[in-house]
């Protein structure tokens, strides 16, 4: 099944200054691809190419769909932004819940972590987690990491997934289509990268958009406003020092007024009944990578697959924990590090048979030709900061099928 990716317009270089700042490309270790694209509203997205090529449904199955777009894209410099954290304004301390989540990062050197056995022995009765499976034990000496709460937190997040199951909602949106959503998410990846926001902020913002559009009919003129406001809400939820409203007005090229942002923020929160603690796959991915004792390169490869999946409307229905598991499994097989272990099954709750179909979808997504104008994620993970994982060749399909057809591990 081919995956479609939309297009957006060419880049025009800015002239002059904005707020006294030269518009230039910002390049940092966390923003390898330069500054975010300053765009006006998504007012000219159409299905021109699809209508010219015949039946839209058939064209969607034949390959890429590319709506025309006349959005203005201008490379800007966010240096001096009011959102830049400063020692005098941002506290270095984090709460116990945040520390417990950060404790699951596999960014530590893999050799420093406790070994995890490959298979889980069981006598058929419910048992306490064996000492070798307690991945939080090595954090017991740091009270800020709250290792005693980590497992309970992730059990709670996994339980909450059931409340946020989505289906394909685009048929309820008469003025929007899948390609427009892809363009919006592609732009949000650039914004997250160049505002230097947490990855959780990007994932949560995309979740907010999908859940809001599933309960509210929106016009294309307001799509960028919805995306920008969702990013603002997510930043307030996840960041210690979120970007200001002025920052989002700026990157939207003043296409919207301050009161429109405030009104949209209220609409989104009311539409979601103020329940925005939506589980995101990035959190599960870091914890499962810790279980697998994956290296940073392997984790980054899984992150690339997971972030690329944000562009695909077909995958919005997937539970965050299952998507994270499938992304990690595909990364492990690609790197030749084996398959799904007993420890991973115990901590994720998914057996190999539960992940096989989703792994095949992710593989098809990577194998399908991408739209040349929708490359934010691929360009981001092609940088050496991210180990150039986007350039890693796909594992051979026979190798993947062999890994997916292995007998289920014993519980």
UniProtKB/TrEMBL annotation:
Keyword check for Glycoprotein: no
This protein's UniProt keywords: Cell cycle, Cell division, Cyclin
Domain Cyclin C-terminal: from-to ranges: 279-395
Signal peptide: none
Domain Cyclin-like, chain residue ranges per copy: 186-270, 283-364
Biased composition (Polar residues): 43-54
Keyword Transit peptide: no
Stretch list, region Disordered: 1-73, 105-124
InterPro entries: Cyclin, Cyclin-like_dom, Cyclin-like_sf, Cyclin_A/B-like, Cyclin_C-dom, Cyclin_N, Cyclins_cyclin-box
GO terms, biological process: cell division; mitotic cell cycle phase transition
PROSITE patterns documented for this protein: CYCLINS (PS00292)
One Pfam family per UniProt: Cyclin_N
Compositional bias annotation for Basic residues: 1-16
Entry GO MF terms: cyclin-dependent protein serine/threonine kinase regulator activity
Family: Belongs to the cyclin family. Cyclin AB subfamily.
Biological role: Essential for the control of the cell cycle at the G2/M (mitosis) transition.
Name of the protein described by the UniProt record: G2/mitotic-specific cyclin-B3
Organism, as annotated: Electrophorus electricus (Electric eel)
Upper taxonomic lineage: Eukaryota, Metazoa, Chordata, Craniata, Vertebrata
Name of the gene this protein is made from: SETD3
